[in-house]
Amino acid sequence: MNEALQYQLIKKCSTTKARLGKISTPHGEIETPIFMPVGTQATVKTMTSEELKEVGAQIILSNTYHLYLRPGHDLVEEAGGLHKFMNWDGPILTDSGGFQVFSLGDLRQISEEGVEFRSHLDGSKHFLSPERAIEIENALGADIIMAFDECPPYPCSHEYAKASLERTIRWAKRCQDAHHRSNQALFGIVQGGIYQDLREQSAREITALDFPGYAIGGLSVGEPKEIMHEVLDYTVPLLPENKPRYLMGVGAPQDLVEGVARGIDMFDCVLPSRVARNGTLFTSHGRVVIKNAQYARDFTPLDPECGCYTCRNYTKAYLRHLFKAEEILGLRLATIHNLHFLLDLMKKIRQAIQEDRFSQFSEEFLGKYGSR
Questions:
Q1: Would you put residue 256 in left (φ > 0), alpha (ψ -120 to 50) or beta?
Q2: What value does the mean pLDDT take over residues 122-131?
Q3: Which of 46, 168, 222, 311 has the most Cβ atoms closer than 10 angstroms to its Cβ?
Q4: What pLDDT does residue 370 have?
Q5: Considering 149, 265, 268, 344, which one is annotated as catalytic?
Q6: pLDDT in tens, 53-109
Q7: Which of 262, 214, 255, 187 is nearest to 19 (CA)?
Q8: Whether the Cβ atoms of residue 102 and residue 65 lie closer than 8 Å to each other
Q9: Catalytic residue at 95?
Q10: Given this model, what pLDDT does residue 144 score?
Q11: Angle between the 130-140 and 158-178 helix axes, to the nearest 10 degrees?
Q12: Which whole number is the average pLDDT over 20-29?
């Protein structure tokens, strides 16, 4: 039994693969399914820890690559770890930095030993291996940490995806060997691109390593939604029922609903905070681009069905004014709303599963919001 993490399966939906669960960590319990706001650089952009709690965040994600480059994992460790450094006393998950390193393209070079890359900040040269990634994640001190994997691009050939996933398995074993903190749970990652035989191979080999939880990586990287759903349909059933399942990098409202229906427990994405800063807001009737002229004299709340701080206190006209005037408050109010919207959506999903009406909820939500 893993002392850093326990997963309890509470209830399964009778008509889909949706499931209600609870994850216990050293910094508290997480009700699943859950969306994790992304605090890339030890901050969810524009939000304080208190505001994150107010919008319903149970766990947040930070990024190993960015914190390694700035301010440095040694400094974070000296501060007492990520929880103390950023004043967040709830659970934290750190990714391994693999996705960020591989997205550097020409700035990185992959070998069996690891990845040599140049910093996007100053061009300085660095080397990240599975052992080094775990060393950094151990220093940061999150409750859940991710194995260092290779995230293949979309599209890529079967040959490339196979070599990539086999390297990811070898790296996962090295991550396990390097990981020694008993108060951190290390998750393995399933890769394999869009190829069913490779996803099956990856799931079989990674679950044989007996991690306390499993992520599905390499999706939401440009492939059509139908392909993502198809990959989930044949991959999720290969993962153990008694452990958490995490779909990496997915955060559009309709994708959360579709992912839950296929048995996913955990999601993360920069999408809600990133699009908020561009003036795109989630509402129960679909996306609103608040900069549009139609909202200039709209003195109604952004979403009358939403109870967030923004919708309780401000109008569409005011939000539009803030964005047009390039006022910082606009970014904050928009971020508060989008994160509240997603976290409230997950709360409603959990309630629907508990009451065994998830299929009905899903149909109604996608009908109103739009499944695009």
A1: alpha
A2: 95
A3: 168
A4: 80
A5: 268
A6: 999 999 999 999 999 999 999 999 999 999 999 999 999 999 998 888 878 888 899
A7: 262
A8: no
A9: yes
A10: 98
A11: 50
A12: 98
- What pLDDT is stored for residue 321 in this prediction? 98
344 annotated active-site: no
Q: Which of 95, 149, 255, 303 is flagged as catalytic?
A: 95
Name which residue leads in pLDDT, 336 or 371. 336
Is the pLDDT at 3 greater than 90, yes or no?
no
Question: Is the bond leading into 91 cis (omega within 30 degrees of zero)?
Answer: no
Give the number of other CB atoms < 10 A from CB of residue 370: 12
φ, ψ for residue 358, nearest 5 deg: -65, -40
Pairing of strands 92-95, 60-63: parallel
> What's the pLDDT score for residue 98?
84
Mean pLDDT value across residues 131-146: 98
> Token pair for residue 258?
């579709």
